[in-house]
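User: Can you fold this complex?
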Amino acid sequence: MLVESIVRKTLGLKRHCVNKVTEEHGEIVVYLVPDKRCKVVCSCCGRQGPGYDTLKERRWKHVPLWGIPVTLVHAPRRVECSTCGIRVEAIPWTQGKSPLSLPLSVVLATWSKLVAWKVVGQLFGFHWNTVRKAVKNVVDYGLANRDLGNLIYIGIDEISRKRGHVYHTQVYDLIEKRLLWSGEDRTSETLEAFFDYLGQERCECIEAVCCDMWAPYIDAIKKRLPNALLVFDKFHIVRHLLDAVDKVRKEEAQKLKSENPELLKKSRYIWLKNPWNLTDNQKVRLSDLEKLNLKINRAYLLKEAFRKFWDYSYKAWAKKYLIQWFWWATHSRLKPMRDFAWMVRRHQDDILNYFKVPIDNGAVEGLNNKAKAISHRAYGYRTAETFKLALYHGMGKLPEPQLTHKFV
Ligand SMILES: [Zn+2]
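Assistant: Here's the predicted assembly.
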């Protein structure tokens, strides 16, 4: 009797009751039947209607009790709904066709945010794939019920899977700092698939998009969001700049190889790091190297001068400074710096949009790092679907199904 009333209370049963609880092959099996006093409720619209027929018995895995597996058994009825036609009844402990009870999905999914999915499976006595299904149920619910009403600034970035062999395009909500969408590959079509998903009306509400200077993304944005402001991401621009500086260092080190191989050895981070982050030893080494007439030092000074660009408040002043910097870089006799300067020149308008809407993908960088840890937790079968599932679950800030009892 006690187990029956616990089941009734924790499942929040109103139109169903527990018929019997048995022990079968080491499992607790709970048989649920309709409460004859109640009408059948349509699973589509929630309205009551007359019963139509009864379907075959179904079984759901439920939250284990004292480490003993629990199974729920019920033969769902169908309702003759005046609005929807003939439909399956609403069953409070389930969602769609899942063989897991909703509380079990929530319990496993909650733990999956904290530890590896495989470990969750071991703790609760389920296969990895059951844990995956649980996460999928909760994510599906979240995606169907999330609010996309206030989407105005989005950030687009890429992330690699399988050690850089497969790319995923990630779309973030820059205000709420949540993952909106993830799709395999990084082509125009990939991004257009997101805009299709979002729909015309919501696309029109987007005011600004932040991304890297990656032509396929730019094409898709200009085509599908013609009125949105394109802002090239500050962090990506800086990364391109650092790549250029590093190229100068490598070329120079190569030239000095026979003459003075020790001079630039292990100096990479001295040139790339922010000066205030250098260790005392690095500071001393930098000031020694600065006294020599090195190409890398000229590149370093250009890099440091570029920093000032972001400090401007007004677009016109920022532009003036950028033009000045362009002149310095193009007269530096350093090819990588010149190439970078020309890339900036080609995208100048979209870079300067930062001074209209100062958004950047800084938060996204943090999220992308988090993504790596998250996808690692889902380790099992590294398919694109599982990867996306783990990301939505960990970074989507998705609403979760509400339960009448707090199981975890
Ligand atoms: Zn209905």
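The pocket of zinc ion is lined by residues 42, 44-45, 47, 81, 83-84, 87 (CB under 6 Å). The mean pLDDT is 91.
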